[in-house]
Amino acid sequence: MGFEKSVVFACGHEEYAVPVDQVVSIEKLERVTPIPHLPKYLLGFTRARGELIPVIDFGLILYNQPCSGDNIRCLILNTDVVNYGLVVGEAREIFDFNPSTLKQMGLVNYAKTQYFTAVANLEDRMITCVDPKILVNSLEGIREIIEYLHKMLENEEVNS
Q: Of 7, 62, 63, 100, which residue is most buried, by most CB within 10 angstroms?
């Protein structure tokens, strides 16, 4: 997975990046339908380009604090597991990293942060690279939620 061209975003006081080829779109956080008894990180479901997707709050995952403010955005991410919305503090830019600035993280072996795959240590900032597939796979309860989502989609297809 190449982070050479990435979408850089803020969450808390830090900057993170996801590969641009996995970002379907960047949108304002619109209607999210909450579902009772979901894990705290999952805000609910929304429709993006006609597709029902789960919406995950990155602030809750990292800092146990929801993303808030006028600049919050929802990155619609595409993985082979599930497409999902990742709520972040602010989408900042598309950045072309020089591969020499990307350093593999030693924390990859730490179970709770396996999705941090590299760090771009730039002159005036540090950006942590997040693998969207590893992130979604690392979340507790996500398999059941994805199965539920697939059942809902099957029902939609049968009823239409």
A: 7
